[in-house]
Sequence to fold (467 residues):
Amino acid sequence: MDLTLAADADRIPALLDTVRDHAGRVLAGLADRPAAGSPRQGPARPLPEHGIGTERALAEFAARWEPGFSASAGPRYLGFVTGGATPAAVAGDWLATAHDQNVAATHDSSATDLERETLRWLGELLDLGTAHSGAFVTGATMSNLVGLAIGREWLGERAGISVAEDGAAALGPVPILSGAAHSSVFKALAMLGLGRKNLRTIPTLDGREAVDPDRLAEALDALDGRPAIVVANAGTVNTVDFDDLRAVAALRERYPFWLHVDGAFGAFAALSPAHEHLVAGLAEADSVCVDLHKWLNVPYDSAAQFTRRKDLQLRVFQNAAAYLGVPADDPAFVHLTPENSRRLRALPAWFALAAYGRQGHREIVERDIALARRLGQRIEELPGLRLLAPVRLNVVCFTLAENPTPERVNALAEVIAADGRAFLTPTEYDGTRALRAAFSNWRTTEADVERIAEAIADAARAVPPSR
Fold:
């Protein structure tokens, strides 16, 4: 054994204590760290011929790289709908690494049963009912891909073919309809061979990102009975708007289509009695995307995919190898997801749900919603800024009151990031360049909202006037 590795092996408990103490200091200091870090940390160094051991590697990391890391786990990082990681989720993630389980198969570990239990808990949390089965994947993009892949196989079933066996070419062009599909849906369509250009954008309701059910019905009627895929939204990325899922699902009484719902973070509205009506009908979907490293506040990367048609999912993703065994009635996850190599990412979610339950996560969701509304009110009070949409749930979409060109709004985002008190990401809504502040972190408080509002106000004053 390499001498440096052997020395580390003899000191594993002490090394883990050192890393634990370091991580504890990082987490304790999140409130005081800049929300965004500098992406430039100097030139890369060559691969070392001889290693320096874990303790010195930690010291080098802390000196060279850590100062440029963002405080994305902190309370004022409002970009990308990023949750932090609750204490229980961190504990689960560390243990997932320590145990290093391969949850591809079922014959050597109870980890697969833990994953199944966690998925049942998530289904209960989101009121999906018992008809849906689930699987853990890396994020919303992969969850959308799995759901659309099952939908693609459903289209093949209607045509008397198996796309998994015969290829997407055997299916021909597929009509895909959506009101305001997330960019990850287009990426998934490209990977599945369905094609980005085959997604037809259906008009939305006036002043909304929610699809117009009547216009969707017209588009389906124009297909003359040809099966399609409909991608509905349970929380759009810019304004957290919701399609009327019950109205969309009811169209299946007249038209044949696979209903996939992208509920990456909006599905968690089910936890709030005041907002659960927004996801009414979610359980009627054929497949559902839920991103857990957003509002469930587990570490990256973690998402879940749910579907009513596990049989079609198995047909798409089954892996034929003698050492993996033949898929059974309750197949191993290697036969249900794109990855053969699967980390036990269910464990942080299990810890989070076991530690805080429905009530603990409801409190996070409802607090974030209240804080988003508070920031929306502050934006309306600040000179030089305006809201672009009502604060429907947990995202505040706003822009400069005058001449919101991409250059000026981008400059506003850069000034906010450089200030360090907050981090927001730019977007475009209804043809207008804007910023979006997404609340999903369990640490965020009213005091943080005031600091964020002050940072935005200061940045707005610092942006050069329009010409």
